[in-house]
Structures are given as C-alpha cells and as structure tokens.
Specification:
Number of domains of chain B: 3
Protein name (chain A): MerR-like DNA binding protein
Order of helices and strands of chain B: HHHHHHEHEEEEEEHEEEEH
Domain J (chain B): 9-73
Number of helices of chain B: 9
CATH class of the largest domain in chain B: Mainly Alpha
Radius of gyration of chain B: 32 Å
Structural class of chain A: mainly alpha
Order of helices and strands of chain A: HHEEHH
Protein name (chain B): Curved DNA-binding protein
Oligomer: heterodimer
Shape of chain B: elongated
Shape of chain A: flat
Strand content of chain A: under 5%
Structural class of chain B: alpha+beta
Number of helices of chain A: 4
Helix content of chain B: 25-40%
GO molecular function (chain B): DNA binding; unfolded protein binding
Strand content of chain B: 15-25%
CATH superfamily of the largest domain in chain B: DnaJ domain
CATH class of chain A: Mainly Alpha
Number of strands of chain A: 2
Number of domains of chain A: 1
Largest sheet of chain B: 4 strands, mixed
Pfam families (chain A): MerR_2
Radius of gyration of chain A: 17 Å
CATH architecture of chain A: Orthogonal Bundle
CATH architecture of the largest domain in chain B: Orthogonal Bundle
Largest sheet of chain A: 2 strands, antiparallel
CATH topology of the largest domain in chain B: Helix Hairpins
Chain lengths: 98, 301
C-alpha cells in the first residue's frame, strides 16, 4: 500500500501577508474581497493566503501605479495575463521541430 | 529586446516628432506604457524602456517643462529658472557638453515610487519577474556546463549560467533576484531563462529521445555491418543487422538526453539505404549481375 506523507500547507494570515508585502492589512482584505488575490477562509472564518499572494499583490501594485488602472481593470488584466501564460506554455510544448 | 533610444531624448523615447501635439504625446505614451509594462512584457529590457517612456512623458506632458526641454535640451533641469534666452545662448556649449543623462535627474529615481508618492502612498513594491530565452545547441543541452549570457539593458548584464546536463526545450532556469528592480527597499524579481534547443541538422529531439538518420550502403544493409554514429555524447558503434531496409529503427538504450533525475532517453537510428549517384564500370557490372540473379521483389507480396 502506498504511503503518503501528511504535509501541512503553508497558509498566511492577513497580517503576515501585509507584513511581507508592505501593505496595510485593510488593503490586503480589500484586495481579497475584490478577488485580486486568491484567498480561502479557515474553519473559524479567517482569511488565509498561500505564499504566492505576496508576488501577486506586488503585481497588482505595479499595474496600478504603472498603468493607472482601476481595480476592476486590474482584475481583468490579471485573468488575461494568466490565460496568456497558459496558452504560451501550450504553444511551447507543441512546438516540436524535426 | 526593447529598442534603444539615447538617454535624454524624450521625443525619441516616445517616438513622436518635436512638433507633436499634447494629444499625440499622450497617445504615444499610453500605447508604449501598455506595451512595456513589466507585468505585461517580461523581456529584460522592457522595464527600462517603460521607465524611459514614463520619464519622457512626465516632461513632455507638462507644457512648461516641455518648453524648457525644447530650449535647453536634456540638461534643462540644471538650467536656472531665470536664465534668459541671450544668456543661455552664450552658455549653450557648456550646458550641452555636460552630457548628463536621465540618470542625473534628482526627482525621477524610480518612476514607480515617484507615481506612488504622487498618489499619497509610500510603499515599496517588489520587482516583476523577467524572462529571457537561452538558446542552446543539442550538444550543449546534452552536456550541460557553463554558458555566458549577455542581456542588453541599462548597461549590459552578463551572466555565467550553469546548465544542468540534459536540460529540455522549454525548461526554465531561475536566477533569483535578477529580475525587475523593486521600488524602495523591496526585493527584486527573478529572471527566468527559458531554454530553447536550436534545431539541429542531424539530431531530432522527442522528449528525451534522440532520433537520427543512419545512412548505410546497400551491401551494409543487406549483409549487416558495424557502423560509427556521431551522438552528442561522442561516437558510438552501431551494429546493423543483416537485411535492414530503410525505415528500420535501431534503439541505443540510454544514449539519448541524460536526465538528472532518472533514466536517460534512448537514441533511435533509422536506417536509410543510400546508393551511389554514379556507378563506376565495375560497380555497374556487379549491380547488373545482382539484378539478373536476384529474385527479390520489394513490391511483391
């Protein structure tokens, strides 16, 4: 029978994400509410983030300051950038030369 | 790579003529900012270009600053406000020969932090990740080793990259902290090198398996032979069994691309029977004799 190691996933609290990304905790909550950063809630309803939230929040800030986008537009740009990344990876894996 | 414009040439940075209207400047800026934003364009040169475009727009969108820039050139910030036309004309050579670029500006150290301050923020934002392609030959990918890589940007960036043996097309090599610069004291992004294995005249790659053609003479194919084959790892001897027609594939187990985390791929050599383009007299005689004697019919059932 296969054995599986139980690993506790690393999840960060609002305050931890705020500290790591240099944002106010309220702003982190707002970004989570606007779904600009992925989050889950634990059993007692607190927001939890994966470590990927930190670079994701940096991307939100860069798009906001660099292109003067509003948050709705940033959400759209993030979705499109993610889709492009998937498509580009597909193109790469299909590009086989002979 | 981003195309380069000399530092301090704001019209060139935006690609507009000196006579451009405010609308044209705004249009050019918006378009270029979208194109070179480091989160949209992961090219290592994009971030610098983005900052250049932003710096140019900051000056040219302000009628007062634009007028001064038009009059005094790239060093307009170092010209006192109250300098008059005639006095400047006398001092022109001094100002223009100073040759200070955008880097000399005190107030545009970083466009991000600059814009952020304007909005009442003050946070530091980590830099974006960047991507560049790393072209390797099949042999380089096979052997691994060191490769010198030069990226053009603000000043050249040189890297000595260690390539693991058996690196695959599309694989990413991460150089931590070598991506876009963060603003304030935030961390820089990472630079990802995407491996591109260049098409090779003889080797075709399919996953970790290597395919090559194995040209043999008709008698080698008919009688069997041991022939030398060049592989990325060096020459190997391949035994061609008697009666091998074109298309027969010989597998050399483990002679494909190495895998640092498992079994290497295999090398497939496909037999291709070649005939001389021109036969010498004796060769022709022998082939004619063979044709008369042989009952072999490759099209028969």
């Amino acid at each position: 029978m296969a054995k599986y190691q139980l690993v506790r996933p690393v999840l960060l609290s609002v305050d931890e994400v705020a500290a790591r990304s240099g944002l106010h905790p309220d702003l982190v909550r707002r970004f989570a509410a606007m779904s600009l950063v992925d989050s889950t809630t634990d059993v007692i309803g607190r927001l939890r983030f994966t470590p990927k939230a930190v670079p994701a929040l940096a991307r939100v800030q860069r798009l906001r300051t660099g292109l003067a986008l509003n948050y709705a537009a940033i959400g759209l740009v993030l979705d499109l950038l993610d889709r492009i990344e998937v498509l580009e990876a597909q193109v790469r894996s299909h590009r086989r030369w002979t | 790579m981003a195309d380069r414009t000399p530092h301090g040439d704001f019209y060139g940075a935006l690609g507009v003529p000196r006579t451009a209207s405010t609308d044209e400047i705004q249009r050019a800026y918006r378009k270029l900012a979208r194109q070179y934003h480091p989160d949209v364009n992961s090219d290592p040169g994009a971030e610098e270009r983005f900052k250049e475009v932003g710096a140019a727009y900051q000056v040219l969108s302000d009628p007062d600053q634009r007028r001064r820039y038009d009059r005094f050139g790239a060093d307009f910030r170092h010209v006192p406000d109250d300098v008059d036309e005639r006095a400047h004309a006398d001092g022109r050579t001094r100002y223009t020969s100073a040759g200070r670029g955008v880097g000399g500006f005190e107030d545009i150290e970083d466009l991000f932090s600059g814009l952020f301050r304007g909005r009442g923020g003050g946070a530091s934002i980590p830099g974006a990740d960047q991507q560049a392609e790393l072209e390797l030959t099949v042999e380089e990918a096979y052997r691994g080793g060191h490769k010198h890589l030069t990226l053009r940007g603000s000043g050249q960036r040189d890297y000595d990259v260690t390539i693991p043996p058996g690196v695959m097309d599309g694989q990413r090599i991460r150089l931590a902290g070598q991506g876009g610069t963060g603003s304030g004291n935030a961390a820089a992004g990472d630079l990802y090198l995407i491996v591109r294995v260049k098409p090779h005249r003889r080797y075709r790659l399919s996953g970790r398996d290597l395919h090559i053609d194995l040209p043999v003479s008709p008698w080698e194919a008919a009688l069997g032979a041991t022939v030398p084959v060049d592989t990325p790892g060096g020459e190997v001897k391949v035994r061609v069994a008697p009666g091998a027609s074109s298309g027969r594939r010989l597998r050399l187990r483990g002679e494909g691309m190495p895998d640092p985390r498992g079994k290497p791929g295999d090398l497939y050599a496909e037999v291709r029977v070649m005939v001389p383009k021109r036969l010498r007299k004796r060769e022709r005689e022998l082939f004619e004799e063979l044709a008369a004697v042989s009952e072999f019919d490759p099209r028969g059932t």
